[in-house]
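Problem 3 from the worked examples.
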Amino acid sequence: MTRVSLIDEKDHPELAELIERLRRGRRGSLIDLYRVLLHSPEIASAWFEYSNAVRWKTGLEGRLRELVIVRIALLYDVDYMIRQHVPNLTTPEGISAAECAALADWRPATCFSERERAALAYADAMSREVTVPNEIFEAVARHFSEPQVVELTILIGAFNMSTRVMKALELDPQPVQPASSGAEAPAKPVALSGPPILVVEDDWFTRLFGVVLDPATSGERIAAFTDFFSHDEPDFAGYCARVRARVPGLFPAQVKLAGSVEEMRALLPGARALVVESFPVGRAELDAGRDLVVVQKFGAMPRGIDVAACAERGIRVLTVRRRSTAACAEFAIALMLTLAKKLHRLAGRISSERLAEDGGPYRPFDRRHTANSNWARVPGLRTLNGSTFGIIGVGEIGREIVLRLGAFGMRLLYHQRTRLPEAEERALRLTYVPLDQLIAESDWIVPLLPIGPATRHFFDRARFAQMKPGAFLVNISRAELVDRVALIEALKSGRLGGFALDPLYEEPGRSDDELLGFRNVVLTPHIAAQPRFNVLGEMAEMMADIARELAP
């Protein structure tokens, strides 16, 4: 028997423990998984979105992909999934209605190739057990290359688990039954004419939807974005043309930018797609947007979106793992390493003369007896391994940071208003502590908070006094989270071991900024989320996903 994992903890670290129990074949593990998903809508939604991403990002041909998915839906009698994968609508190669019907009992059918039959047998076997009979696996191996076998396994595993979860949690919306005589028949969806309407939460970056998709966007705005992206994408017009070519049904579109929740509700009538970053989407918004087909979250977690209410109405909820959040996480860790290893002071100082500019004169070791490492005698170098890291606010950037810091062997503490579910804490190796304890025990602190009246000067004299002597503060949120006067006092006193900041208190900064005079301070010019290709890729991905959902 060949063991095939249904899901992999690399894709979903928050489910790692349950996945391991699945791998060991313990009975009841699926019920535990259902329980986790039931009590954590964010994890459930992330899992379903992962399955959908697998569907579209697989390199397998479209016809084979849809045959497998429809077969899994038939095995579990998931009507909604079958209707979502209606033949001829999801793949250019097409599957006839007769072929779709034949999938219910595909073995005697003559309309499927040997390659397709091998894939269907594989899907059936994986739907029954975690292990697959050798003869079935060998048949798949004869018809598919090794990378294709991996993709097929991921595709079947993802949709297999999703259908089980949908059935267990009763998430499968049933078709509306014809009304009995005398009762008013339910309204049928009306095909909307003209360019599709997209309502988009107004943000510096989501404005790209209008720039790319809406011909009514002003020339002034297009020119501003062309300049904004020019250092990373000198052919911005070419980028726009490439994206439009990928979304023929979405271009041209009418893009309506909403600056508030109230404005968003007012704009929703007639809209087919809604794009939000922070605005909530609940029943009131869905009532206003009765023509909505899809809600796109500009982020990886559908926080603030009533996923269940959307499912009731057949509205897809899409998410995107933002490349810029990963870039911010990398940058925060880069700043930590820079301070720990004093790279900002030592880069290029490889001669005795250059080293003397930053410290004392060069004195060689007695090489007859010793090694020559750190021949520059640089004091105070630190390691991340074994130290304590404290993060205040575990949103999308915070998750990306702690996922990476786990590899450094650090103790990871966190604090925020709402504690994470226990399963997520275990998966992320996080320990929840009160704020005062986090500040007092952490060697490294990263605050990830939005700026507002409650968070402005969050780090003031009192909080600096609470910090462990010699601890480091790395701020990649907003400069105003840290009281500048209190910061300079803490640096002068020596209590603060080091400080890194991006973005700055003012942009551009000043060459006479007092912070530049401290050797344990790193300041960078608002580059944490760079390069610009990050947001360009995110926007193109969201537009393509929305276009697929709106396709006839």
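Problem 4, a separate protein:
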Amino acid sequence: MRLRVTALFTVGLVALGCSPDQAPPVLPTPADEIPEVVLGAEAIAREFAVEPAGLVSPVLDAPAGATRVGALITLDDADAPTPTVHARGVDADGVRGAWTALEVTWREGDQLVAVVDLPELARGAQLRLSTGAAVAQLTWSALVPSPPTEAREPTGDIGAHRAGLRADLAALGVNSRESWGARGTRCSSRNTDKNRVAIHHTVSQPGGDPASRLRGIQSYHMDSRGWCDVGYHFLVSVDGRIWEGRPIDLLGAHVGGHNTGNIGISFIGCFHSSGCGAIDGPRHPPDVMIENVAGFVAGLSEIYGFGITPSSVKGHRDHSGQSTSCPGDHLHARLDDIRSGTVGPFYGAAYVEQTFPLARDPFELRPGEVVSGHLEMRNTGTEPWRPGETFLGTTEPRDAASPLAADSWVSPSRAATIDRVVNPGETGRFEFELRAPATPGEYPQYFNLVQESVAWFGDPGQGGPPDAQIQIRVTVLDAPPVMPDAGAPPPPPPPADASMGDPDAGPPSTDAGMVTGGERPMADGCSCRAAPGAPTSPAWLALGALALWRRRRRRD
């Protein structure tokens, strides 16, 4: 995103009485070094000082100097009134200048762009919002803008690059500048030979009408930064559509010192592990964005004749000399998918083991009985699984409330979430309980993994398993229900002829009718109950109780 401008231009320090000949030359602020802050309504309320004239920001430092303050503002509602915004410069000694109103250069719906040129070179700036301003998100910066190539065109001059969209790009599914109402470009530096691609994210709101979001980004780049057009050659909306930005035959403005031959593609949204709190939308780029860009990059490589390698398709931050997190950690993690030209499956799982009996084996419970166990699966997809995002859900049908749901379930249709972060190739565990219904009968329950609000693992294009593969089948017996544990009952009185505490009586015989072995593991290792077919007649139970009473007497 850095723009190297070799031409120097002079800022007259009018307030100091300096003539243009005496003022030192000032370089435009490189894009990577533009001091910029993105804030939501809560952060504004927390960080801005309440003063009689409005809400005042902390000082935004501009070590390289600033002669302009610009803002891209998203309001709470499209009908909200335009807020009054002022800015002032702060010099190296902390002296504040006078407040100056920002001029609104563009407004559409809930978005607006406003700028002001400071009267003198500053080393920092402050912003003031009118009290009660309905601001949902504020992006503002303090910089030295690029010198204009010509007088600023009116914002109403809506048009497109006059050459139109090239046929080979249209064949790749690109939406033209005309389709989103782009302003006419002021760029003139041609760069027709392309040999690489840089991936970015815009750190801006992704929702709503993509065309409107594009016009907002373009207006902010042109009016606040002074650029001749939007900096990127292509932008990608959250629904996966690809939009023409700066015409591809022109030099881009997206990676400082590396724009020549470089095609800039920017994902609309914020895909970093931090700093996106004020921005709505997904933090991980949706699969449709990755899939479409992967195919698009493959098409560009054919048009321009370059191979797809880690050297030719990079994130912004992978270029030398860059001081940025762009394109964000979560998008950067998908660069290999973009380079591959084919993507997926993103979500897939392979069965490892379970402690509950397999569906073909007996699994008998009394009404109300609760058993614990786990299911282990290996991540065969390309995306990590995370607690609170990856769940074991009910299927056949999906999301149906399960009759086997226990109180510990996340919901009646979600047995558990994954126990930890599970990266591709690793094995994770779902630990959960099953509770037998009150009515005797057969209860087959199917499960599958689901990435909540993203995809089921059994969806077309994902790695499975199918929805009807993972099954637990419970048989509820026609037997007295299991009652809540209220403590062990007292031992029954011994028969009249029983030995009472004889120290020489010895321990009870192992064939005295007690169920030996305690909790017998099932065939699959789930330790839940005594073995099937163990003696349970009243006589055997009485003998067992007597033996237990005698053992306790001996210990006493």
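Solution to problem 4. The helical segments are 41-47, 167-170, 177-180, 210-224, 287-304, 329-332, 335-340, 538-555. Residues 1-20, 150-161, 495-556 have pLDDT under 50 and may be disordered.
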